Amino acid sequence: MRRSSKWTVVGCLAVGALLLAGVAQAQESSIQGYVTDESNAALPGASVVVTNADTGISRELTTNAKGYYLAQYLQSGNYSVTASLEGMQTVKRENIRLLLGQALDVNLKLGVEKVTEAIVVTAESPLVEVSRTSAAAYVSE
Predict the structure, then answer these.
(1) Range 85-98 burial, b when 16+ CB lie within 10 A, else e
(2) What does the angle CA 33 – CA 38 – CA 39 come to, to the nearest 5 degrees?
(3) Partners of 32 in the beta sheet?
(4) What is the pLDDT of residue 38?
């Protein structure tokens, strides 16, 4: 009888461990989504930063070939998600409330960055005196 009770205890412990692992996995929170341009084309290689606004802890990710990102094992709380890519405008979504065990979809659409070009003109005196129409001779001391 001793052997059978020992195996019963071991079996109960194993089942309990499996149940706890299932509960922990079911309570995993994550933020995921796609980063696209204005025409809904995927933006691979975009930088995505997921920041917990309550703790200040952030996680940096990069989108895959389909523009997809996934931030797993997050604590519940308030989050912001920022996406950027060279040549594109940076987009930030704030006040994202993540609950325990929730998987939120946060898709971000980046617009083309507007190029601002400034032309600076400085006024200098011309080398040729354009206002005089006759020959002139200047004599210095």
Answers:
(1) beebeebeeeebeb
(2) 95
(3) 70, 105
(4) 94
Task: Tell me the average pLDDT of the chain.
Answer: 81
Instruction: Locate 118 and state its tokens.
Output: 């400034």
Going from the C-alpha of 97 to that of each of 12, 25, 29, 102, the distances in angstroms are: 38, 20, 11, 10
- Cα separation, 84 vs 31, in Å, equals 17
**Residue 112 per-residue DSSP state:** B
pTM exceeding the 0.70 threshold for the entire prediction: no
CB 75 within 8 A of CB 53: no
Rg of the chain over Cα atoms, rounded to whole angstroms, equals 32
Closest CA to 31 of 106, 97, 100: 106
What distance in Å separates the CA atoms of residue 70 and residue 113, rounded to the nearest whole number? Answer: 25
Which parts of the chain register pLDDT below 50? 1, 21-26
Q: What does the alpha-carbon distance between residue 3 and residue 117 come to, in Å, rounded to a whole number?
A: 83
Portion of the chain with pLDDT greater than 90, in percent: 59
- The candidate with the shortest Cα–Cα distance to 42, out of 94, 92, 106, 107, is 107
What pLDDT shows up at residue 25?
Answer: 45
Amino acid at site 77:
G
Residue that the structure tokens 């940076």 belong to: 90
d(Cα 108, Cα 125) in Å, to the nearest integer? 53
